[in-house]
Every structure is written in C-alpha cells, then in structure tokens.
Design a protein that fits this description.
It is a single chain. The protein has 361 residues and is an alpha+beta fold. The chain has two domains: 110 residues, Phosphorylase Kinase, domain 1, CATH 3.30.200; 237 residues, Alpha-Beta Complex (Aminoglycoside 3'-phosphotransferase, Chain: A, domain 2). It has twelve helices and ten strands. The longest helix is centred in the C-terminal third of the chain and has 22 residues. The mean pLDDT is 95. Bound molecules: 2-acetamido-2-deoxy-1-O-phosphono-alpha-D-glucopyranose and magnesium ion. The site of 2-acetamido-2-deoxy-1-O-phosphono-alpha-D-glucopyranose (GN1) has 10 residues, from loops. 2-acetamido-2-deoxy-1-O-phosphono-alpha-D-glucopyranose binds next to loops.
Length: 361
C-alpha cells in the first residue's frame, strides 16, 4: 500500500493516514479505505478505470456538478449532517479533481461517509428506502442547470448499441465459445426488437432522457445504523438516460432471490415483495415529475435491464473476458445464465409487475 500512500500526498489532505485497505467489491474501479488518526475524517481513495471511463476530467466534472447541486438542495432544505448526505470530492493540490500518476493511472479521493452501512441483500423495508433514495436522487437532479451531463460511457444503457457490440462478439467468436452457447444467442435475438423499443420511442420524441444514476444496486445506497438512507454513492455513471433504466437495474440486482452469478439457477427468481416495496418508495418520490409514458415502462425496464446485463456478460464471455473482472474461468457465462434465468422469471411475472406499478402510480 506504499504506492497508495504516495498518491495521497498529491491531495489536499492534512491529516496523517494511518492505514490503507482495499474496500468493496466493484467490478470496475479499485477502491481503498484510508483511515486517519483521531477525529479527522476518513477517506476513500480510488483508481478510476480509465480503460472504461475514457474521459476522466469530464467524469469528475459530472460528479462535482451533481454533488454540488444536491448539497445546495439539502442545505436550502435545512438538512443536518450534510457531510453524510452527499458525497464530497477532495481536490488535488493542483486544483484538479484527480491525480494522474507516472503510469498514467487516474486517482481520486472522496470523503468517507462515517457510520454508514451498505447491504448486498435487501429486505422489503430496505428496498422501500432504496426506492425513495433513487427517486429523490432523480428528483433532485431533474433541474440541474447548464449543459447536459457528459455520457461517461457513451451509449451505456443503449440497447441498440449493446446489441451491436454483442452481434460483433458473436461474429468474431474470439474465444471460440460460440458453439456451446449458440442456443442462448437465439434466445437473445428473439427478444431483440422488443428490447430496443425505448430507443425507438426516444427517436420519436416520446421518451425523454433525464439524469440517471445508471448503477442502482442496493449497495450503492448508504444507510445509517437505524436503516435510514444517508446518500447515494458510486456516481461514475450518472448521466442522461431513461428513468426505466434506473428502476430496472435496481430490480435486476435487488429483487433477485439469487445472486447475480448464482450457479444454482433454482435460486434465481424475481422477489415480488421487494419489487413492490421499491416501486412504492420510488414512485412516492418521483411520480410528480414522471410522464405517463415513463410510468408505463417501469416494469418493462426491469426486463430490459436484466436482458441488457445478460447481453453484456455474454458479449464479454464471447470476447474472452476483457471487460468484467472474473473470479473463475466461466464466470461471465455463469453470470449470463443467471441473468437470463431472472429475465425468464420476470417474463412469467410480467402482468403482476405491471399491476404493482399501476397500484401505486
Ligand atoms: C459494473 O463495478 P460495478 O459492480 O459497480 C458495471 C455495471 C453492471 C455491473 C454488473 C461501469 O458495476 O453497469 O451492471 O458491473 N459498471 C460499468 O454487476 O460497466
Ligand atoms: Mg458501479
């Protein structure tokens, strides 16, 4: 961890760092928790994966705009303990929002949110709270002034573009994995047209883009010890998108009775009580600004994001595991199958999902 210690010296931090330890289990960036002595705040140091986030200055500027806007709203509303309610970037000594090391890596530091808890598994109560958190997040950012945010990963949740990448991966068959997986390519293709509908609606001027979080996993919400929401974290992918994306990605991750990479597909299904609780919390906060077309596509969003993730894992598997960190040789295939199983279960429960949305809009 000596290297990390050196990086810190480029940032505007006075307090001595007493330890640096790996933090979290993200698939993309590397994160470390830095403990300081005594009462001083602790920090999170992250190496930003610039193979994925190609324009780090723009990414950091997005985060600054978003966090400043939220901080102002909270301050105006008289919210206490603001430090724990929104992330705070620590600038480097040269004034930039990152430090670039001699090897070309980009590093940033955020203030660690103290006494916070995150969960990888949810119950209905946490899910209700998470729905409110992401609903609030979208609502607070719905009037962000100025230019649209930069798409930190262009076409990130664009299904047409994800399918184009997937089809290229099928065509190239780089890792020679196509033969045994062809049946699932067919299943993906069967649903392709339906899944591209939001892009079509957007082109027709019917479905707007708004500021989305674009990684609405439950572990991206921090709670206090009583289960109250503190803030939303992991802001790298905050960018314009369809609200159905954020809604859907939470369901894909939080409302799965199994794991994202469950090897036992019998574990994988849509948890309806979680689905209902999140829907209630989300719409409580967001329904005032959503158009009818957006509300009508929320349940569809759950299917879409699950399908999209299956397509993304599958494409990476066919490419020979270039994007996602893997923990076993077949990991991306295992993930693909688990996502596809979840999709099938959502297809079976689709009418109930739509009804759960209608019940609270
Ligand atoms: C990645 O790193 P993590 O776990 O926050 C990915 C998400 C995927 C997710 C799948 C930038 O998120 O889009 O849904 O893995 N983030 C990026 O678990 O690609
Ligand atoms: Mg993330």
């Amino acid at each position: 961890m000596e290297k990390q210690q050196t990086i810190v010296s480029f940032f505007d931090i006075q307090d001595p760092i007493i330890s640096v330890k790996p933090l979290g289990a993200g698939h993309i960036n590397d994160s470390y928790k830095m403990l300081t002595a005594g009462e001083a705040p602790d920090y999170v140091l992250q190496r930003i994966n610039h193979a994925i986030f190609k324009d780090v200055p723009a990414l950091q500027n997005n985060i600054l705009r978003v966090t400043n806007h939220i901080r102002k709203k909270l301050t105006d509303a008289g919210v206490k303990n603001i430090q724990n309610r929104v992330l705070q970037l620590i600038p480097a000594k040269d004034g930039k929002l990152f430090h670039r090391d001699g090897e070309g890596n980009y590093w940033r530091i955020l203030r660690f949110v103290p006494d916070s808890y995150s969960y990888d598994d949810v119950n209905a109560e946490l899910s209700l709270q998470a729905g409110r958190a992401f609903g609030d997040f979208q609502t607070m950012l719905s009037d962000l002034p100025g230019e649209p945010l930069v798409e930190t990963i262009p076409n990130f949740h664009n299904m047409e573009s994800r399918l184009a990448t997937f089809r290229q991966a099928v065509k190239d068959n780089k890792a020679g994995r196509l033969q045994k997986t062809q049946y699932l390519v067919d299943e993906i293709e069967k649903r392709a047209e339906e899944m591209c509908r939001p892009e079509q609606l957007h082109r027709e001027g019917k479905l707007p883009k708004r500021i989305n979080h674009c990684d609405t996993k439950v572990n991206n919400v921090l709670f206090d010890k009583n289960g109250n929401v503190l803030c939303v974290v992991d802001l790298d992918t905050v960018m314009p998108g369809y609200v159905l994306s954020d809604f859907g990605d939470f369901m894909r991750t939080g409302a799965n009775t199994g794991k994202e990479d469950d090897t036992n597909l019998n574990n994988v299904s849509l948890n309806m009580p979680i689905f209902e609780a999140y829907t209630k919390g989300y719409l409580e906060k967001a329904k005032s600004f959503l158009l009818p077309v957006e509300k009508d596509h929320l349940a569809f969003g759950a299917k879409l994001l699950t399908y999209m993730q299956a397509v993304r894992f599958f494409a990476d598997y066919l490419d020979g595991d270039l994007y996602y960190k893997i923990h076993s040789p077949e990991h991306n295939w295992i993930r693909t199958l688990a996502q596809f199983k979840l999709l099938q279960d959502m297809e079976n429960k689709y009418e109930r999902m739509k009804k759960a949305v209608q019940d609270v809009v």
